[in-house]
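Both lines are retained for reference:
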Amino acid sequence: MDAVTDKLELLGRNRLAISGVDGVDGFTEQTLNLTVSGVKVKITGDKIKISSYNKASGTLTADGIFNEIKYNAKKTPLFKKIFK
């Protein structure tokens, strides 16, 4: 069994805590783009502010109103789908 390398906690849609963060890829007040354990994560909402980020420990906390958290799975290239 694989060890858990990331953890996501959402408290009342207003406070977000994530571990396993490899990097912050970009952010605005409406979106937060992260890489978590090698997977791209897009978080959307309103008035999003990063409260703390520690790259060494891979932890991030943010405040705001969170509407959606989406993990992007690795997609198979179209070329491979066509020519199986």
Observations:
- The domain at 7-73 is CATH 2.60.40.2000 (Immunoglobulin-like).
- The two ends are 31 Å apart (CA to CA).
